[in-house]
Amino acid sequence: MPLVHVNRRAGRPREENAGVLEGIHAAIVEAFKTPMHDRTQLLSEHDAAHFEIPADRTAAYTLIEITAFPGRSVDAKRALYRGIVARLEAIGIAPADVLIVLTEPPLESWSIRGGAAACDVKVGYKIDV
Fold first, then answer.
1. pLDDT, tens digit (0-9, with 9 covering 90-100), for 40-80
2. Would you call 22 helix, strand, or coil by DSSP?
3. Residues with Cβ within 8 Å of residue 9, at least 6 apart in sequence
4. Distances from the Cα of 34 to the Cαs of 62, 89, 112, in angstroms?
5. Could you give the C-alpha distances from 121 to 36, 90, 111, 128, in angstroms and in order?
6. Measured between alpha carbons, how far is residue 100 from residues 41, 62, 113 in Å?
7. Contact 66, 23 (CB under 8 A)
8. Of 125, 129, 128, nearest in space to 112 by CA
9. Which of 43, 51, 82, 83 keeps 20 to 30 A from 91, CA to CA?
């Protein structure tokens, strides 16, 4: 049940933004073994005055924040990062222009399926990959 928030500078091509979301989701499914339908993503575009880009990056700079259930191995996380970067590179975004931050709040900090805490719900797929 990863939640994905992507931040980019406004004005990037619509097709590129769609490719970013597709690439991130495909990498999550592959690395974390989440179901294909389990997809919650938000892409926010920011005016240049509200989105600073490091001096050594380009206008394609993409900040990806993923909030996920805890339990994935370091190898699964490495696979996720590599998978995202490779997929974004395939659509023209340089690896140096991708920053990924993964946050894993404990299950009791999530409320899913009718207000139940995630620690009290069977999610339906394996988390410890």
1. 999 999 999 999 999 999 999 999 999 999 999 999 999 99
2. helix
3. 45, 46, 47, 48, 51, 53, 59, 61
4. 23, 23, 16
5. 19, 37, 9, 16
6. 14, 8, 27
7. no
8. 125
9. 51
Query: What integer is the mean pLDDT of 24-46?
Result: 97
| Residue bearing tokens 């998978």 | 83
What pLDDT digit, counting tens, does each position of 79-123 carry?
999 999 999 999 999 999 999 999 999 999 988 878 888 888 888
Residue ranges covered by each domain of the chain? 3-120
Q: Which H or E run contains 32?
A: helix 14-32
Q: Which DSSP helix (H) or strand (E) runs through 86? A: helix 74-90
- For the full predicted model, state whether its pTM sits above 0.90: yes
Separation between Cα atoms, residue 99 and residue 6, nearest integer Å: 10
HSE-CB for 34 with a 13 A CA cutoff: 24
Contacts of 27 (CB under 8 A, 6+ apart): 80, 83, 84, 86, 87
**CATH number 3.30.429.10 is the correct assignment for the domain at 3-120:** yes
